[in-house]
Amino acid sequence: MEQIFFFYFAFVIAATSVLVIAMRNPVYSALALLIMFFHVAGLYVTLHAEFLAAVQIIVYAGAILVLYLFVVMLLNLKQDDRYHRQWPMAAGVGMMLFVEAIILTGMKGWTAPLVPTGSETTVEEAGNTEVIGDVLYSTYLFPFEVASLILLVAMIGAIILAKKDLLEVHSNG
Amino acid sequence: MTELSLRLAVSLAQIVAVMGIVMLTVMILTLAERKVLGWMQDRMGPMEVGPYGILQPIADGLKLFFKEDIVPAGANKAMFTLAPILAMVPAMIGFAVIPFGPNVTVNIFGITIKPFVISDINIGVLYILAFASIGAYGIILGGWSSNSKYSLLGGLRSAAQVISYELNVGLAIVGVLLLSGSLSLVTITQAQAGGFWHWFIWGARPDGFFPIHTQIFAFVVFVISAVAETNRVPFDLPEAESELVAGFFTEYSGMRFAFFFIAEYANMVLVSCVAASLFLGGWNAPYPGTILGYAGLEQLAWVENVAWFTLKVYMFLFLFFWLRATLPRLRYDQLMRFGWKVMLPIALANIVVTAITAYFFPR
């Protein structure tokens, strides 16, 4: 049963990802991306990571993609094919990833398999929201703080970009 | 296998019941809004169809059903069809995690069911937030696909508004989550049992009366942001009729229009249910226990609990109408400034204060 769900989600994720870059109309691309986000969330649910699934939808589908759609509509890019001329670059990146995948599959037997630190039952008992909170503020505290610092820098950058005109006017006058 | 099919049948029956109640409430609301607005403006409201106009919703429904379905020339047909569905489904799906009554279990045909709780998932609040944010797609796509300036402007306004105020809704809830220690609406409601001073709007600890964890500021932010998120007056800029004809659904008619309409009202019911569950104790009565329980009718106590929940929800719905009759529409820059410079700092300060008091005076 789980296998069936996994293959369904995997197939739809792959198919809609291709559609995102293959569609000529940017609004259709954004909608394909929306369907993909939902299926990634579904994949998280099959892994018993309900919290991640909900956050995936809130953050990506609910906020980021709405902003994309917003920009696409404001610019009214109708069937712009400028962005479909990047195949040499895409082929290069794709080739690298393909070689990497082959090497990793070949090396499967050589390296020790990853041992998960917590079992699924401990997560189920504590509730996965609590477990994520615990791990985020103990084991991964440093990456977490670095991520928030990066976000702060981005925020300051956005404010400076938006206030640029005001500063120039101020210095002139 | 029979047990599985029985469970499926029970779940389906619950879903049908909740859908039926929500649609019935929406019907009542369409009439109640016109009646309440009428009385507030010293009019009678609809009086023609049935005694005191109580059959008006049925007449409206029939009219919408038989109206011609118009798709404007130059509209994107697929998106034009998809948009009302994308608006309606998220509004309906959120009711799956609302606890309408006490978390009691009933044995029927050898299986245990919870009649008033369709689904008690441990991320209930996030689930509602997630689907509430998806509702914006219906509005944006409806505005874009109509191929009309008014619709597009309405859709864009709505996108900006929903994103801004969704943030405030999420932050206002955090205080309650800190206090209850759970994302499940059932657990949150159970944490508020035992009298109105334990409701999170007052926020007394389980052993006292002093409102040390009061969430009144979060409650105000939540209610105002919820009004903005459902695109109601005074935040109804996406459909401001004096400037944008009807906003994002200018070009819609017949049942497609009805879908947007039902979605708006269903969203109102949903945020009212969430506000009642999070801040006003959900199904709990404002006194400890239930009167029917004290009278020795413990098995009928659910009637009282469900009645209190219904009363609280309708109180919020009445507030929506009251605001509409009282307040003029905000200007767009006022709306944005209010959301980001007034609501957001209050919500953030509430989180800090609640975190500190919850740390020093744990529940």
Describe this structure in words.
The complex is a heterodimer of chains A (173) and B (363). Chain A is mainly alpha-helical. Chain A is 79% helix and 0% strand. Chain A contains 7 helices and no strands. With 363 residues, chain B is mainly α. Chain B has one domain. Helix content of chain B is 63%, strand content 2%. A two-stranded antiparallel ribbon of chain B has the order 1-2. The model of chain B has no long low-confidence stretch (mean pLDDT 83). Classes of the chains: A mainly alpha (173), B mainly alpha (363). Chain A binds chain B through residues 27, 31, 34, 50-51, 53-55, 57-58, 61-63, 66-67, 69-70, 73-74, 127-129, and chain B through 79, 121-123, 126-127, 129-134, 136-137, 140-141, 144, 152, 155-156, 159-160, 162-163, 166, 170, 182-183.
The secondary structure category of chain A is: mainly alpha
> N- to C-terminal separation of chain B?
44 Å
Name of the level-1 CATH class of the largest domain in chain A: Mainly Alpha
Integer tally of domains of chain B: 1
- In DSSP terms, counting alpha (H) and pi (I) runs of 4 or more, how many helices of chain A? 7
Mean of residue pLDDT values of chain A: 80
Task: Give a quick summary of the entry.
The complex is a heterodimer of chains A (173) and B (363). Chain A has 173 residues and is mainly alpha-helical.
Question: Which SSEs are present, and which pair or pack?
Answer:
The complex is a heterodimer of chains A (173) and B (363).
Chain A: H1 2-22, H2 26-46, H3 50-75, H4 87-106, H5 120-126, H6 128-137, H7 141-172
Helix pairs in contact in A: 1-2, 2-3, 5-6
Chain B: H1 2-40, H2 56-66, H3 77-93, E1 106-108, E2 111-113, H4 124-145, H5 149-180, H6 185-190, H7 216-229, H8 241-244, H9 254-279, H10 291-294, H11 301-326, H12 332-360
Antiparallel strand pairs in B: 1-2
Helix pairs in contact in B: 1-9, 1-11, 2-9, 3-4, 3-9, 4-5, 5-7, 5-12, 7-9, 7-12, 9-11
Features:
heterodimer; A: 173 residues; mainly alpha; Four Helix Bundle (Hemerythrin (Met), subunit A); 2 domains; 79% helix; B: 363 residues; two-stranded antiparallel sheet; 12 helices; 2 strands
